[in-house]
Specification:
It is built from 20 helices and four strands. The protein is mainly α. It has a two-stranded antiparallel sheet with strand order 1-2.
């Protein structure tokens, strides 16, 4: 920065002009870097000589009030507060007006408490000025004024000190410039990421058609000129008609037959991939302000671009949530992200409050009022907890368009040009839910479930159990064991197969067979031989008929048991008996 010479109060002084010329010549001569220190020393010596030659000349100290555009004149406290106001308090805040209205509200409160001694004319003037503002606007000014003093406590002594009004005005104007610059900086940083954030699965498939950057007309292909972004901007009231014929719906959005207004929220605010895929017209609040595109914008702004797609932060600097001491998500944070998200996908090259019929200021305040004044407090509190989990992974926070005639979609016959007020419809649904929750004891239709009978002194009937199995004292019949399976070439029926033939001396008198028994046994054997198929006789010296008997034993092994020839055994028995 060139050195600023103090001007002499005597412009016609020849010594002064000669000194100036000598200073200029010295500056032109000593241009080598090594001589820089000497040049500065010579310059100061010349200036000292000038002061000595003109004893009336005095050093003029720069005044703080002389340069309003110098950022050094405003402490960082106020600049940081302005950035926090833009993102967390009021995007459209005018600090000068906020200070004036806030001071009037402060006086009004003091007068009501009997702490202010003022003239009647002053009181009437103040009331007249405040009467021009609506109740919601006054509440917003009160809330913002308290936030301003909390973020910038150095403003308190300046507000009450009238001689410092110029300094207060300079600070307020600088804060307004910072608020506007903060919104612009966030929009610029979001611009290059919209292609990734708008794609449902950016790591698997990019947005088609591709969104490119560069050039003055880089946003001409966005907004309603892009098939996917047009579905994001479509009013929720025309969603079904957009699904039926997207090309026709985009034309109607362009010409205004589908009206995009601040009271008919855009589709991208609803949850789903694509947005509002599970939208229920009878329960419009379900999934509202939970769209994946909006969630990525919120993360980008408050917790850093590296967290936009759900990853942990990799930033080396503090995020905006930390810088602004943002511990929980509030309605103002959601509204700021909604406005930035809509502007980011629009085809507008420059920021403006109005985008055709859509007004960003009204859109911002409608979102804040809808969440703050929602009659269904359970839904509102659940929404904020959902956002706390999305941003801070803790529900307690960081710490702890419509159609205007019959030919257009979504319009009833004979409808007027008035836009569909989806906001009023959602408020009516919320009011109905809240009133139903407040009347739990009202008589209702019996539910299909079977009611539990009340307990009484009458002894209930015992439960019926199946009769127990009665064990009789009579001895059970012996179990019948089936004879082992006999596999033989000539099966014998009704005759057990002895494992060993007993000698005649080992038989008891009862066990000795009689002649009659031998005749029966012989006849039975002859019959079985006739019925059984003929089998080949074994060859060899010891050609005997054998039967293979397989018994079921503990070790499950097969065993061949020889069967004695009944004819030969009969002859031996008869001979021995005789």
């Amino acid at each position: 920065m060139p050195h600023k010479r103090p001007q002499s109060p005597y412009p016609s002084d020849s010594d002064g002009s000669s000194s100036d010329s000598s200073i200029s010549s010295m500056e032109r001569t000593h241009i080598r870097p090594k001589k820089s220190k000497k040049r500065g020393h010579s310059h100061r010596s010349a200036m000292a000589g000038l002061d000595k030659g003109n004893p009336k000349s005095k050093k003029i100290k720069p005044s703080k009030d002389n340069d309003d555009s110098d950022p050094d004149q405003v402490p960082e406290e106020y600049l940081a507060a302005a950035r926090a106001i833009a993102r967390c308090v009021d995007l459209f805040c005018n600090v000068e007006k906020l200070l004036r209205v806030g001071f009037l509200l402060q006086q009004e409160q003091a007068a009501e408490n009997g702490e202010l001694d003022e003239l009647e004319a002053e009181r009437e003037s103040r009331k007249k000025r405040l009467a021009t503002l609506s109740t919601n606007t006054l509440d917003r000014y009160k809330r913002n004024y308290q936030q301003l003093l909390h973020l910038a406590p150095g403003l308190r002594p300046l507000i009450a000190d009238h001689p410092k009004s110029k300094q207060l005005t300079r600070i307020a104007r600088k804060m307004n410039a910072v608020i506007s610059g903060t919104r612009s900086d966030d929009a610029t940083r979001l611009k290059v990421q919209i292609g990734h954030y708008a794609a449902p699965e950016p790591l698997q498939e990019a947005l088609k058609p591709t969104i490119y950057n560069g050039g003055s007309l880089s946003r001409a292909h966005m907004g309603i000129n892009h098939p996917v972004l047009a579905s994001f901007l479509c009013p929720i009231s025309a969603l079904e008609d957009f699904k039926k014929d997207p090309a026709q719906a985009r034309k109607w959005m362009e010409v205004g037959r589908i009206r995009m207004t601040s009271i008919d929220f855009p589709v991208f605010l609803w949850a789903g991939k694509p947005p509002a895929s599970n939208y229920n017209e009878d329960a419009m609040h379900e999934g509202l302000f939970q769209g994946y595109f909006l969630e990525r914008i919120m993360r980008h702004i408050f917790t850093g671009p590296s967290t936009a797609l759900g990853d942990d932060s990799r930033a080396t600097r503090s995020c905006n949530a930390s810088l602004h001491d943002m511990t929980t998500v509030e309605a103002e944070h959601i509204a700021y992200a909604c406005v930035q998200a809509r502007f980011a996908i629009s085809n507008k090259n420059k920021w403006a409050e109005a985008d055709g019929e859509f007004n960003n200021r009204a859109f911002y305040y409608n979102i804040i009022d809808f969440i703050r004044e929602c009659e269904d407090r359970d839904w509102a509190e659940g929404l904020l907890k959902w956002w706390n989990r999305a941003l801070f992974k803790n529900e307690n926070g960081r710490e702890g368009g419509t159609i205007i005639d019959d030919n257009g979609p979504g319009n009833a016959a004979g409808s007027s040009l008035a836009p569909i007020n989806g906001l009023a419809k959602m408020r009516a649904q919320m009011a109905a839910r809240a009133s139903a929750a407040k009347q739990p004891s009202a008589p209702a239709e019996p539910t299909p479930t079977i009611p539990t009978p009340p307990q009484s002194s009458v002894t209930p009937e015992p439960e019926l159990h199946p009769p127990p199995i009665v064990r009789s004292s009579v001895a059970p019949e012996p179990e019948l064991h089936l004879p082992p399976t006999i596999r033989s070439l000539r099966p014998l029926q009704n005759a057990p197969s002895p494992s060993k033939s007993l000698a005649p001396s080992e038989l008891t008198p009862d066990e000795v067979p009689s002649e009659h028994d031998d005749d029966d046994l012989l006849s039975t054997t002859i019959k079985q031989r006739k019925k059984a198929p003929k089998a080949k006789r074994a060859t060899g010296k010891t050609a005997k008929r054998r039967v293979t008997v397989i018994e079921e034993s503990d070790d499950s092994k097969d065993e061949e048991l020889p069967v004695a020839n009944p004819t030969k055994s009969r002859g031996k028995r008869v001979a021995r008996r005789k």
